[in-house]
Design brief:
Blueprint (H helix, E strand, L loop, with lengths): L18 E12 L5 E2 L7 E6 L4 E7 L9 H6 L4 E11 L2 E9 L8 E9 L2 E5 L3 E2 L8 E10 L2
Antiparallel strand pairs: 1-2, 1-3, 1-10, 3-4, 4-5, 5-6, 6-7, 7-8, 8-10, 9-10
């Protein structure tokens, strides 16, 4: 079931999306082959939190991250996480976040669109197809992120 069948753009008060969702998996699918890979390992950690007031906080961290002991190692840690927050709105089967803070400054001031479905306490998220600089040789890819509602 998609959120569009139970929630309108104006009805952000629905409890179905609100709350804290814990990351279960993060995979990337290659459009040309349907092959998938786990860019942050088999057991990444993270949460997405939707407030009833319309704020979203999204944080993913790669499996096995260790503190950096020098500037180069600390800098490399940025490629093993995704973090952003902003005001979100719901439109049919997607949420759109107006990003105001992000681990990647290029995202600040942009709108990030995510497609999603909710099935019971499971949230499945897809990014739009795009060429990612981290693996541009794979062509068009999309992220598939799965969460479970925290109880």
């Amino acid at each position: 079931m998609t959120l569009s069948s139970v929630q309108s753009t104006q009805a952000i008060t629905s409890p179905s999306v609100h709350g804290a969702w814990q990351l279960l998996s993060y995979d990337v699918e290659q459009q040309s082959s349907s092959d998938t890979f786990a860019p942050m390992g088999d057991q990444p950690t993270g949460y997405v939190i939707f407030t009833p007031e319309g704020r979203l906080s999204f944080m993913l961290s790669a499996e096995g991250r260790k503190p950096g002991s020098n500037a180069e190692e600390r800098s490399a840690l940025l490629s093993s996480m995704i973090a952003y927050t902003g005001i979100y709105r719901l439109e049919s089967d997607r949420w759109i976040t107006e990003v105001d803070v992000a681990w990647n400054p290029e995202w600040v001031g942009t709108e990030q669109t995510r497609f999603f479905t909710i099935d019971g306490d499971m949230l499945t998220v897809h990014t739009p197809w795009r060429v990612m600089p981290n693996w541009s040789e794979k062509g068009l890819t999309r992220s598939i992120v799965r969460f479970q509602l925290c109880r």
